[in-house]
Specification:
341 residues, alpha/beta, TIM Barrel, seven-stranded mixed sheet, two-stranded parallel ribbon, 46% helix, 14% strand
Length: 341
């Protein structure tokens, strides 16, 4: 129902010309940079997957190539520092996590249009046999035969209903949101209980780990002049919930691992789960990073904090949906009406 409403709104905005007018107004100022965020490039099997199909990604990139000056994150930061402005609006393309399809499906499209991009990878998941914890949660909710759950580790959620796809998706988001708030040890206990209550053994998760890049593939990507490899921590933990020493380990170790494996400097970071605070930003500076990306569904102005760069997360959709995302029409509607999300 919500997706139908969303499609109707984006289609109306596009066909009525509202999206185009919003585009012209939104990107008329040149003292800003649109930083796009993608995760997976694949046909999403269901709404659990934060993925954009290759066909839709190609449509997005064609539009971006035709209407923006697409530059690297490094170039954008330098342009912002100098206060330079270009004839066209500026855009940066980024990816989070380090999925294999970024190489097999995303990079060919970027090469087609000659577009640079930064790929932020969770270094501990590269070539590892363990999937990220977010993928585990999604797997449990997608595959379980249970009709409902009660988690002792998350008593505040009460009975978690799993009767249909919409309830499963809502419950999955609710559980992940709560898990982002708890310390690492608490998250491990929740995962263990989910495995027990859903009846799905961890051995079945091996396939999820294979979705991540190997280090050989990371090196292959890093050799492409269009590609920058950035850090997305080691284990994708919620940094704001960690001790100072743990944050330092996540930021410093991931940087060192990627630099060792690729032979390239890693000046940029992306906060896992958008979890950061003043302390995390300070440690990122001290760890040797030059900038860090967040997710705020906003255009990044020239006066932005270099360690809280705003990005717009892009969902799967055709050009009408993409325009509604980058002009922030959908973001505004979500704030006004919860039904959109």
């Amino acid at each position: 129902m919500k997706q139908t409403i969303k499609k109707g709104i984006t289609s109306f905005c596009y066909k009525s010309g509202l999206s185009r007018r919003a585009f012209g107004e939104r990107f008329a100022p040149r003292d800003q940079v649109l930083i796009l965020l993608y995760h997976q490039i694949k046909n999403p099997e269901n709404r659990f997957e934060v993925a954009v199909s290759q066909e839709n990604f190609d449509t997005h990139m064609r539009f971006v190539a035709e209407n923006f000056k697409v530059i690297s994150l490094k170039a954008a930061l330098e342009m912002m520092r100098r206060g330079e402005q270009s004839d066209q609006p500026a855009a940066v393309i980024t990816f989070d996590d380090g999925y294999r399809d970024n190489l097999t499906a995303g990079l060919p499209v970027l090469r087609k249009y000659g577009l640079p991009a930064t790929f932020f990878i969770a270094a501990g998941s590269m070539g590892n046999q363990e999937p990220m914890w977010t993928s585990r949660v999604e797997y449990y909710f997608k595959k379980t035969n249970a009709r409902s759950l009660r988690l002792e580790t998350l008593p505040g959620l009460g009975t978690i209903e799993l009767n249909d796809a919409a309830k499963r998706l809502y419950s999955c988001h609710a559980v992940k949101a709560e898990m982002k708030k708890v310390p690492d040890e608490g998250r491990i206990r929740i995962l263990e209980e989910l495995e027990q209550k859903t009846g799905l053994k961890s051995e079945a998760l091996r396939g999820l780990a294979s979705e991540m890049l190997s280090w050989d593939e990371v090196r292959e990507m890093a050799s492409d002049p269009l590609v920058e490899i950035g850090s997305h921590s080691v284990t994708h933990r919620m940094l704001a919930n960690l001790s100072e020493d743990e944050v330092r380990e996540e930021l410093a170790a991931s940087k060192a691992m990627i630099e060792k494996e690729t032979g390239r400097e890693v000046p940029h970071f992306s906060y896992p789960g958008n979890s950061y605070n003043d302390r995390v930003r300070r440690i990122a500076r001290e760890a040797g990073y030059e900038a860090a990306c967040a997710v705020d569904q906003e255009i990044c102005g020239y006066g932005a904090d270099r360690f809280a760069l705003k990005r717009v997360h892009i969902e799967n959709g055709k050009l009408d949906s993409f325009l509604a995302e980058i002009t922030l029409l959908l973001s505004k509607l979500r704030k006004w009406k919860d039904i959109i999300r």
